[in-house]
Amino acid sequence: YANANAIMTLHLAIYALAEIGNNDPLGKLSAARMADGEIQVAVRGGPALIVQVNAGKLRVKQGISEHRRAKMVFADIESAGAVLRGELSSYAAIGRDLIELGGYVPMLDNLNKLLSLVPRYLG
Fold first, then answer.
1. Helices 77-84 and 2-23: angle between axes, nearest 10 degrees
2. Is 63 exposed, middle or buried (0-12, 13-18, 19+ CB in 10 A)?
3. Are 60 and 30 in contact (CB under 8 A)?
4. Segments making up each domain of the chain, as ranges
5. To bridge 100 with a disulfide, which of 9, 15, 73, 77 should be the other Cys (CB 3.0-4.6 Å)?
6. 105-122 and 25-32 are packed helices; what angle lies between their axes, rounded to 10 degrees?
7. Would the CA dihedral through 105, 93, 9, 24 be positive or negative?
8. 3-state secondary structure of 43
9. What CA–CA distance (Å, rounded) separates 55 from 96?
């Protein structure tokens, strides 16, 4: 049950952040600040999603990006679920090497701002 919950939470959060970035007034501000390109959001050995940014518009698709500008990779599905459900701070997860970040950091900063808006709609 926990793995299925974490996988669904990951998909829900990433697809929701794209909708928020495209439609919510605060979300549009963050999306507009994002450079064009792809952000890989993945779990090692698990699901992988690509957030595509083009002229401030976001789109999500499944798979591994061959041209990513930034990445956020969770060490395992348990860590992804814990962070996305708010049970584990993202800073603690980074400190414990449970999240690997890389690439163009401003894209990740705005991605995190969008993620922080998801609970307003789903919480």
1. 50
2. exposed
3. no
4. 2-122
5. 73
6. 170
7. negative
8. strand
9. 35
CB-based burial label for 53 (10 Å; 0-12, 13-18, 19+): buried
Distances (CA, A) of 25 to 18, 31, 40: 13, 10, 24
What's 2-122's CATH class?
A: alpha beta
pTM of the model: 0.92
State pLDDT tens for residues 23-82.
999 999 999 999 999 999 999 999 999 999 999 999 999 999 999 999 999 999 999 999
Query: How far is the C-alpha of 13 from the C-alpha of 85, rounded, in Å?
Result: 10
